[in-house]
Amino acid sequence: MSAPVYLVDDDAAVRDALSLLLSTVGIDVRTFAGPEDFLSALPKLKPGCLILDIRMPAISGLKLQERLTASDVAWPTVVISGHGDIEACRKAFRNGAIDFLSKPVDEQDLIDAIQKGQSALGRAAEADAERRETMALLSGLTPREREVLSLVARGFATRDIAGALEVSPRTVESHRAAIGAKLGTTSPAEMTLLWIEADSAP
Questions:
Q1: How much is the pLDDT for 200?
Q2: Coil/strand/helix, residue 30
Q3: pTM of the model as a whole
């Protein structure tokens, strides 16, 4: 597992125990004594899996979740608690937690939850790489080619595109050929998928 794990818990004994456990199974873990320390370090941290204690002074694990969500930090989060608080559990999941574990934490449950988070990070990284590749391909299109592609994505046939742009069908076919060469596909369905993916990118 290449992505790091960030453990935020105000209990030093818990931090030491869980850090030792995760280190012994090859997980790169970094500990923080509280949300303030983590938030201070956040700008320099690479994406990872979070383990948050739900009850901490000043800023709770739930509040930290909310702050991260507001900052568009959507890292997989495992919430741990020494209290059987069902409502807190619900809030944690509403805030995007992938698991909620009670103290004392079962070692295998924690490792399983982290593996789930690592898999989610991997999928997100792949999707982000695909979006960047798509944006790079589309950036090579001329403004007119982008117009043609947008109409192809809306289901327009060559004759309809020609009428909409007031050009000849042969000109549209020429643009479509150029688009196909630049995007690496002449399939209208694949062109549409690329356009939709770019249009939905943040």
A1: 63
A2: strand
A3: 0.68
